[in-house]
Amino acid sequence: MTVEIDDAGTGDLVGDAFIALHRIETGKIIYRTIPVEMFNEENWKNKMPYKMVVDLVKDGLAELDFQKDKEKILLCRGNIFDKVREYFNEEGITYEPAIIEGKLQDAVEGKLVSHLREDLGVKSKKLTKKSGAKRYYVLFNWLCQDFFRREKFVKSGFKKWNTVWREKAIEKYKRKQYYMKKNATKNQPHELS
């Protein structure tokens, strides 16, 4: 039997991230959450998300009754699984690096998008299951609409966040506020003398 393991959201700007395990033969998929707080500066610096993923994978494999002597794992190549690969090697667990596509990838990316829409309130129709630059900017624009209230959802441990993107987000937020205020005053009724 084979278990696939994949992630979603570990490289996205905002929100929780997810790990999913899929027993191919039965179709069973289980999810585990990495809270956004694990990606703050201190936790990120101490590699806490990587350590947590090992525990999440162990827990998921236990739930699937994984038997290391009889089964193999197809493990996503993403760097969030670096410590998981170390753990598998130490424990003698057979795994293959894999590009995860199909049912599991669709499911775990769907879990992320549901979280972003339902829990964070991202309404953009441009938000899709496809990761990458397009999704990054959808989430960045959402963040900038109400920056100071939404900053708590940012994975603030990412180096570029603190060196580049945070300032850009604040600038964009302030420009939006300026134009909203300007348009509000322009649309005010004027008294006739």
- Kindly state the mean pLDDT as a whole number? 93
Query: What is the H/E order?
Result: EEEHHEHEHHHH
- Describe the strand arrangement of the main beta sheet, using strand numbers: 3-2-1-4-5
Estimate the helix proportion, in percent: 40-55%
Q: Kindly report the CATH topology.
A: Nucleotidyltransferase, domain 5
For the secondary structure, the number of strands is: 5
Kindly give the count of domains.
Answer: 1
Sheet of most strands: 5 strands, mixed
State the separation between the terminal residues, measured CA to CA. Answer: 84 Å
User: Class, according to the CATH hierarchy?
Assistant: Alpha Beta
Tell me the radius of gyration: 21 Å
Instruction: Specify the overall morphology.
Output: elongated
**Beta-sheet strand percentage?**
15-25%
SS field, number of helical segments:
7
Give the helix/strand class: alpha/beta
- Unreliably modeled segments: none
Tell me the CATH architecture.
Answer: 2-Layer Sandwich
Summarize the structure.
The chain is an alpha/beta fold. The protein has helices spanning about 40-45, 50-65, 80-90, 105-120, 135-145, 145-150, 160-185, and strands spanning about 1-10, 15-25, 30-35, 70-75, 95-100.
Write up this protein:
- With 193 residues, this protein is an alpha/beta fold.
- 49% of the residues lie in helices and 16% in strands.
- The chain has helices spanning 41-45, 48-63, 82-91, 103-120, 133-145, 147-150, 159-186, and strands at residues 2-8, 17-23, 28-34, 72-76, 95-98.
- The chain has a five-stranded mixed β-sheet.
- α2 (48-63) crosses α3 and α5 crosses α7.
- The model has no long low-confidence stretch (mean pLDDT 93).
